[in-house]
Amino acid sequence: MLMLMRNAVMGCVVLAALAACGGGSSSPEPMNPNPGNPNPPPVGKSSLTLSGTAATGLAIVDASIQAKCQAGSAQVLSGPDGTYKMEIVEGKFPCVLQLTTPVTGVRLHSVVVGTGNAATVHITPLTDMLTARLFGRDVAGLFPNVDAASLVNTINAANVLAVQADVTALLQDRFNISFLQDFIGAPLRAATAADKAGGDAHDKLLDKVSAYFNPVQLGLINKALASTQTVADIKKLLVELKAAPVANAGLPQAVATGATVLLDASASQAAPGVVPNFRWKIIGKPATSVAELSLANTAKPSFVADKPGSYMFSVMVDYPGERYASSAVVEVTAQLDAPYQTTPAVSGAPNGGVYGEYWKLEFSGTNAGFCDVLFVSPSGGSYTPGMCISNGKLLGDFALRGDVEKTGSVTLNMQVNPHLPESTQTAAIFRGVFRQDGTGAGTWGIPNSAANGAWTATRYIGRQTYRSVTLANPDAGSFASGADGAAGVWRRPSTKNYPEFALILPNGETAWQTGSPFSSGMVHVFGEFLSDGATWQLGNKSTVHTSTLIEGVQASGSIVPKTRIVGTMSAAAGKTVTLSFDSYSIENALALSLADISGTYVAGGASYIAPDGSISGTTEAGCRIQGRIAPVSPDSKANLFRLKLTFYGPASNPAACYETQMGPDYDGYAFMTVSEGERYFYTLLRSSGVPVGYATPASFYPRYILGTKIR
């Protein structure tokens, strides 16, 4: 018998790690009900659950909420609607809670007597008053070291009801508060920034309290409630507080170093008929500054920001002989170059082929015209190339100088004869002011000439959106709405740093830009696209331009109208490659007139298309362009245009623009693409002087891009 007992005990010891002994059965430990919580409540230990809403009439979001109970503590953040929920392991009522707002650091408090293992505890200005009266001292100072005995002795149902009655009596002359029988646990739904009208009656009462008393006044009320003063005495304080001044030092300022700065406390609040005192002080300034306040005992003193850096000022506002005063602070930052541009930042940069902030200057007088795409940087420089045009002719580009960001004054030098050698060019001088409100004005003149006039300027955000279209619902007059299944823009997927496409005109003219099947570069095809609706081939008059001379090129294949073009291309040497344009492009759904495409475009350079189709502008390298754009046929509104451009290098060095190395004149095609509401113009050009069969080096081939339409 003894042996049997010993074996049983040993068996229990051996198996203890796997199961409990006794009774012939074992039970696994309960699973963690919240596997996302790495510290679940210990098995078999009870928890308190506290939940509620933090609000001042508007939900308090992302506030830190701490709870300290007779046993246990916890901390959480309030949610987007001001609600919170926390568990206190092995917690025991009563509890005191402290909320700290995330931006201002203002603290609010609440308490809960509690029964069972859960309670609703709101945190509001009303519960803050109740808590101050209950503890009879500064709760924020008490909270870090509050002990269990203090909580048990202070927080009970009788005490809470008594102090709530005091707060109700204090406020009932000013607010309808009698309906709220429980500051701490009565239903509360707070308004939010997204739904400012969504609060319930409890929340609307909080709105009124917060609107009537500012944070300083609420602090003084809590201080009085925490004292031994009677409700009648504190009511007298409320009368005095509403007559007390509230200081307002004005908004922070950013100014240029050396500027005279005006401070302004005139928005401070004062009792009707009372003239308050103002006392300003410098409480911080750059180390080497000798700045002093002028008229420091007025609402609007001034000083000179003599050094770059931060200047801090305080203003005290009070009444003669009164015990209540209010103070406020404000910062002024002086910069070596104060920002000139005042509109919100715009995605992209002016010289990156995307929109930005620009000025357009219009001039009148001897020769009326305009300058556009003028970019004023924070340092007062200008982005060029821009363009100046008079009577439809390109006059030249411009350079900017002046202390624009500090004084607004601006001087523009515009080269009037850009095609002459620099030494003989004439400069028109524009002088005037660019203002912070986005307007400008001044006069212009040409030295030693009678030519002169006035100018005005406006600032604008360079972006012009356009409606989207679909191939299923194309514009009337577009390629996609017509019967010709071959005409239009065809694309192929590309991993190149340039788009690959084929353009086919209704009369069979064609132009391609695609990766060369015979070399590592690209190939350009100009010629004839002959099709019977099911098959196609390049005509004998077609030419192929690439970095390598290619002779005897032939191409043919099949076409699925408005869907796909496939085929092969072969050269005289016998090499044959597959060729395809897999996409009938969305651009074919657009119908555009000259009026639709006229305007200002920006890419590497700047271009202007006049309503009659004439083009003037500058390239990224600063070379000038002039030319003309027209529909592929007089009555066409399809999205494909004929384009002729002439490139001008400086007269002293015409070859400075690489386009002019093959002759200044080019012709080809252009089409508009629309992406995310922006209009962008692609072009495909060839030199007019290149004979048929001539191999054009790729580096000489102009892939000039008109760019994004900005106005």
UniProtKB/TrEMBL annotation:
The protein, known as: Carboxypeptidase regulatory-like domain-containing protein
Statement: the UniProt record of this protein carries the keyword Signal: yes
Spans annotated as Disordered: 25-47
Family annotation (InterPro entries): Ig-like_fold
Secretion signal span: 1-19
Organism, as annotated: Janthinobacterium violaceinigrum
Domain of life, source organism: Bacteria
Ranges of Pro residues composition bias in the record: 30-43
Keywords on record: Signal
Entry keyword Signal: yes
